[in-house]
Design goal:
Largest sheet: none
Shape: elongated
Strand content: under 5%
Structural class: mainly alpha
Number of strands: 0
Helix content: 55-70%
Distance between the termini: 28 Å
Order of helices and strands: HHHH
Number of helices: 4
């Protein structure tokens, strides 16, 4: 399945849209739409997780922000490498919502780590390239 590439603004808008889906209702999104969003969240999430990993390099081991970021990275390493969900509308929509929540958590972690690095003046290894 190939879906059109999203830019940063579109993926952020899609996050809100996906999180508003009512998975208990009868009006689920089409399976191809949900699977396309799963693909996009996976791609952007992997990039963002890589950025977060890079940002964490300069933090001390006892940094609470860094420790929280590593928990989020652990969650990402599991969820972002799962095989595609079953081709049912509910399964695809569920995965899209879970990845949208993970994407938001990664964004919050990037922001927190960036703020911590700014606060402490630790800026080595700043190879971040994705969404901020």
């Amino acid at each position: 399945m190939t879906s059109p590439a999203f830019d940063e603004e579109q993926i952020l808008a899609a996050t809100g849209l996906v999180l508003d889906w009512d998975l208990d209702g009868s009006s689920l999104p089409p399976v191809d739409e949900a699977l396309g969003l799963v693909e996009q969240f996976t791609t952007f999430g992997r990039d963002l997780a890589g950025d977060l990993r890079d940002l964490c390099l300069g933090l001390p081991d006892d940094s609470r922000v860094g420790q929280a970021a590593h928990v989020t990275l652990g969650e990402a390493s599991g969820r972002l490498y799962l095989p595609p969900p079953a081709g049912t509308p509910r399964a695809a929509a569920h995965r899209a919502q879970n990845l949208a929540r993970l994407f938001e958590a990664l964004l919050r972690a990037v922001e927190a780590v960036s703020n911590e690095r700014d606060r402490t003046g630790r800026h080595q290894h700043s190879a971040a390239k994705g969404i901020r």
